[in-house]
Amino acid sequence: MSERLSESETLFRLRDMNQKSNQNEDMPSAVVIHSNIVTAFDAKTVGTKVLGFGQFFNAILPLVAEHDFAAERVPGQAFINVPDAIPFVSAGVGPRSDNPSNFTLQKHRGRVEAYLKREFASPVESCAIVVYTREAYLKDPQVSPSEVSRTEGATHVLVAVLAGAGPRPALSPYRFTSNLAGGNNEALLWSADEIRTKASEVFVYDNEWATVADS
Fold first, then answer.
1. pLDDT by residue (tens digit) across 132-152?
2. Model pTM?
3. pLDDT above 50 (res 55)
4. Residue 15 — φ and ψ, nearest 5°?
């Protein structure tokens, strides 16, 4: 069962784990802190849920440290597959249902939405993370001054944990439109054809899969 951690406890444990992981001086190092919007470590959450805190970070830290962030389309922003983390996460989605009793109303990021109950989540087939270098993260237009201070000392910021089932998850309709409205720097580089393709993927995925939540 996932334990509830305060913000200070979470940051302390993250830094402690990073220090232990980086004791081998021959290996690349990284100090990873999660973004303030990441809720995957909460006892009750919407979407992907991390079930094993220590095991999860042991799985992702080496991949973050070794990744070439400079080679990404937007330097500093990376989508990294972490299959070794699959046993330590609960999927963020399940097959969409037409039974209202299979859903729970939850408030998430200021919005009340209907989510599939976690008991109907699909078995995890893939796990990926979205990670920014801290330098790239601070360029994001939605990062607040308090978040700048909170992430001080980190080399990288974890902005999403994606435990998936079925096809690679598309962005949610809300996140897709938010990105197009200026919420993400990479979206500024999308061509018209890319936008149409992504919109089609979002539409199809949202019709077949639903985000899960703890009730």
1. 999 999 998 889 999 999 999
2. 0.75
3. yes
4. -65, -40
List residues bridging with 204 in a β-sheet: none
Burial code (b: 16+ CB inside 10 Å, e: under 16) for 47-71 equals bbbbbebeebbbbbbbbbbebebee
Contacts of 158 (CB under 8 A, 6+ apart): 32, 33, 34, 35, 38, 60, 129, 130, 131
183 vs 23, 100, 142, 143, 210, CA distance in Å?
37, 32, 7, 10, 23
Token digits for 154?
């980190």
Q: Which residues in the chain belong to E strands, given as ranges?
A: 32-34, 49-50, 77-81, 89-90, 93-95, 103-108, 111-117, 126-133, 156-164, 209-213
> What are the φ and ψ backbone dihedral angles of 131, each rounded to 5 degrees?
-130, 140
Half-sphere exposure of 46 (CA within 13 A, CB side): 18
CB 127 within 8 A of CB 55: no
Two tokens at 142?
């939605």
Asked whether 75 and 13 are in contact (CB, 8 A), the reply is: no
Q: Collapsing DSSP states into helix, strand and coil, what is residue 183? A: helix
